[in-house]
Specification:
Number of strands: 11
Helix content: 40-55%
Low-confidence stretches: 1-6, 808-832
Protein name: Secreted protein
Radius of gyration: 60 Å
Shape: rod-shaped
Largest sheet: 11 strands, mixed
Length: about 850
């Protein structure tokens, strides 16, 4: 078991010695070892291949130290130190007998805490001379790595020089550190530190394939980095204490060198860089892997590397996740945090970004998202980004971090410089897309008219709209404030949803409907869906203004208040008038005929008066509609009440229309249908003195009045020869229906009531200008029949034998159907 001590890491260390027994001529062999088999020999003979000291190389004086590593050795990778020394003994030939002493540490134990060659060398150099013996491993306390010491030495050597040497090692070549002319090399322990400092600029895992020596002779060896008197063919060289060596040949090695230099120039912190590389302890490899080394170097500046990759249009969500796990959001500046967070939002479905955002969520992260939204540019792009961010937080962050959506939502609402229509759009979108409504958003809708108008515009434009948000606001306004404090548009909304129609005004309805171009039509649709025709009362003024440019609104009103339904009197009046004014549906006021209760007529009339009193165009349209067909008793009743309420403006229009219809302009109107009071007004207003006597005569004839009454009416109208042609037409038509005998009776009554034989003269007036074809012949035939009859009566009275009785006029000839249709209206038969 490995124990940690206050002075460092205590590790088991195997040992072995390669050498000769003094005085013997035999070859070198492993004299003692705690390692099984020939494992010690692999390391010892590899170290011995560096050669032996030469007298002309003062820098190559013993001891030499070699550091070896192998990731493919049995049974596990190892880290070895071999020291070459001479204790003054010679062999049987008199030649020096060198000793190579091996100390072997298992790689997992060494890499676990990134122990360096400097620490290992110091620990082993502190052991008693001769080192451990026997066949069992010894325990060695190795000081832990001091990144600060190595970084200081790198800076002392010159960072570009040390980095250049480290990069050459990635090319897979041997690198010889040669002396600078006139400058002595440091001692052995310092050379170990130099080798260690150079390798500290590579990821620690590279030590699994690195090897180094404090000196080598002219022998052929395979070490990677070493001090030597001169460079041999095929090796790269770097002059110790000289200029940085030439750059490496491989692309990855060159990229690594550029990265090292850029990181050092950026931060100026060699210590941090060395500390990072010492922590890169895996994976162990048997040969240089430059691209894997680049990845490890990338980790030294992972934050900015990933930020730059994202800025260049690359980046990977997993890498962003690693950065945020290594650098919490609150530790980052706004720029980096904005880039990383924006990227995660854009790739939220990858690499568990939602959970990561939730883990990093804070008020600062929320503020960064808001700033990114506002920095998007124009309002449309800002809103699109806000929509995307809110959607991500709702779906991916909120499940892990309740309240995060509301936090971002409210922060966006409170943004210092929001684009136009910002808050209302956000509030509507949040509830429409994700069902998210907050108390704060509702209060903003109730208190800020501009925000509310934007929100309402979106509601009315959405064909799949839900009225639940509107109902919630209505309930809240009702429960928290007085009607006077409630916004007008919301008071009208309450009516649409079932509230008292008297609690709102036309201004309220306009505030609601005029927020969008099609707002009136949409509002009518809502009223129809909610079965609230009562809402038409408040809508009417605004609808009428809108109808001047869109007459098809009448169709929507007709759907809201069907003509064949039973409605409140005022609602029916508003619908009748609007449909008539926009030319929707059939002629007239059809809903008037559907009023069921007698009490519904007054509100119907009151509504018409309210609409028409101050609007001349509406008065004209109302009269046209009321008199479009046979008005009937109810229509004349409404007309009379309107005329009484607005006599100066309304009565004149009624009289004009009646006059036109009576005189053949427009649809004909029978004078019998016109109420007497109106006939008097029409007659007085125009040169139509005939209207009254004609109307009185026709009504009397229609009711079967006695002949004497008809005679009286004709006498009151004037001298027969001066009677109005229209009255003579009425008498002629009555005569055709009643028969010549009726006219005879009326004429006799006239003669009896007035001197000058007015009845006899009536015959002449009726036939004066052949205005009524056939009437003269019929009256003549009748008079001849009467004369023959009277002559026979006289003969009988005077005992004279009468001649043959006069012939009887055939019934078919007497009636002559269709002959006198132009004489006037047919009236019923005689009643006496």
């Amino acid at each position: 078991m490995v124990n940690r001590s206050p002075g460092g890491r205590r590790l088991p260390a195997h040992h072995a010695v390669l050498g000769k027994h003094p005085g013997r001529t035999m070859g070198y062999e492993v004299l003692r070892s705690s390692l099984p088999g020939d494992r010690a020999g692999d390391y010892l003979w590899r170290a011995a291949a560096t050669g032996a000291p030469e007298g002309r190389d003062p820098e190559g004086a013993l001891p030499w130290r070699v550091f070896l590593a192998a990731s493919d050795t049995r049974p596990t990778p190892a880290c070895a130190r071999v020291e070459t020394s001479w204790d003054g003994t010679t062999d049987g030939t008199g030649a020096p007998g060198y000793t190579w002493q091996l100390t072997l540490l298992d790689w997992p134990d060494v890499s676990d805490t990134a122990l360096t060659w400097t620490g290992i060398d110091r620990a082993l150099s502190a052991l008693p001379t001769g080192g451990p013996g026997g066949e069992e491993p010894a325990a060695v306390t190795v000081p832990e790595t001091s990144a600060a010491e190595l970084a200081a030495l790198v800076d002392e050597l010159g960072f570009p020089w040390a980095a250049g040497v480290a990069a050459l090692l990635l090319d897979g070549r041997q690198v010889a550190l040669t002396p600078s002319p006139g400058r002595p090399l440091p001692d052995v322990a310092e050379r170990v530190r130099v080798l260690d400092a150079i390798c500290s600029l590579l990821p620690y895992a590279c030590r699994s394939w690195l090897s180094a020596a404090t000196w080598t002779g002219q022998a052929d060896h395979d070490l990677r980095l070493f001090f030597a008197p001169a460079v041999r063919q095929g090796q790269s060289t770097a002059v110790y204490g000289g200029a940085p060596p030439p750059g490496p040949r491989g692309d990855a090695a060159r990229g690594y060198l550029r990265g090292l230099l850029a990181l050092r120039a950026k931060s100026g912190d060699t210590h941090g860089l060395v500390r990072h590389l010492l922590a890169a302890t895996g994976p162990a490899t048997s040969a240089p892997e430059p691209y894997g080394t680049l990845k490890a170097l990338r980790e030294a500046d992972l934050l900015d590397t990933v930020v730059e990759e994202i800025g260049a249009g690359a980046g990977e969500p997993a890498e962003v996740a690693r950065v945020l796990q290594r650098h919490p959001a609150d530790s980052l500046d706004d720029r980096r945090l904005a880039v990383l967070t924006g990227y995660l939002v854009a790739h939220v479905r990858e690499a568990r970004a939602g959970a990561l955002l939730a883990a990093q969520w804070s008020g600062r992260l929320c503020a960064v998202l808001v700033a990114q939204v506002l920095a998007a540019g124009d309002p449309a792009r800002s809103f699109e980004r806000a929509q995307r961010y809110l959607g991500v937080v709702h779906a991916e962050v909120e499940p892990h971090r309740p309240g995060s959506f509301a936090e971002l939502f409210h922060a966006l609402l409170d943004a210092p410089s929001p684009p136009e229509d910002w808050a209302g759009s956000l509030i509507y979108m949040a509830e429409d897309q994700w069902g998210r409504a907050t108390d704060r958003a509702d209060r903003l809708l109730l208190g800020d008219e501009a925000v509310a108008r934007t929100w309402l515009r979106y509601l009315l434009k959405n064909r799949r709209r839900s009225l639940q948000p509107l109902a919630r606001l209505v309930r809240r306004a009702h429960g928290e404030g007085s009607p006077a404090a409630t916004p007008g548009w919301l008071r009208f909304a309450a009516v649409l949803l079932g509230g008292d129609a008297e609690a709102t005004t036309a201004r309220d309805a306009a505030d609601f409907a005029e927020v969008s171009d099609q707002g009136w039509r949409t509002t009518l649709d809502i009223a129809r869906e909610q079965r609230r025709p009562e809402a038409l009362r408040a809508m009417w003024p605004g609808l009428w203004r809108a109808a001047r440019s869109d007459r098809t609104l009448g169709e929507a009103v007709a759907r809201l208040v069907p003509a064949d339904g039973r409605h409140d009197g005022s609602v029916a009046a508003d619908a009748d008038l609007f449909c008539a004014a926009t030319g929707t549906g059939g002629p007239g006021m059809p809903r008037l005929a559907q009023l069921g209760e007698k009490g519904q007529l007054p509100p119907y009339v009151a509504a018409l008066i309210n609409r028409c009193a101050s609007d001349g165009e509406l008065r004209r349209l109302a009269v046209d509609a009321l008199l479009a067909g046979p008005p009937g008793p109810r229509g004349w009743q409404v007309t009379e009440q309107l005329a009484a309420a607005v006599p100066g403006a309304f009565l004149g229009l009624v009289c004009d229309t009646v006059h036109d219809r009576l005189t053949g302009r427009g649809r004909p109107l029978a004078d019998l249908d016109v109420p007497p009071y109106l006939m008097r007004h029409v007659a007085a207003r125009y040169d139509l003195g005939w209207l009254r006597p004609v109307g009185e005569f026709r009504r009397a004839a229609e009711s079967g009045a006695p002949y004497e009454e008809l005679a009286r009416l004709l006498l009151e109208a004037g001298v027969p020869v001066r009677l109005p042609a229209q009255l003579l037409d009425a008498v002629a038509g009555w005569t055709v229906t009643e028969g010549p005998g009726g006219l005879e009776q009326v004429a006799r009554a006239m003669d009896a009531a007035a001197p000058g034989s007015p009845g006899l003269r009536l015959y002449g007036a009726l036939t004066r200008d052949d205005r009524h074809p056939g009437l003269r012949e019929r009256l003549t035939e009748h008079s001849r029949h009467q004369r023959a009859w009277h002559e026979a009566v006289l003969a009988e009275l005077w005992h004279r034998r009468p001649g043959p009785p006069p012939a009887t006029v055939p019934a078919a000839e007497g009636e002559r159907p269709g002959l006198f249709r132009k004489m006037g209206r047919v009236v019923p038969g005689r009643r006496r």
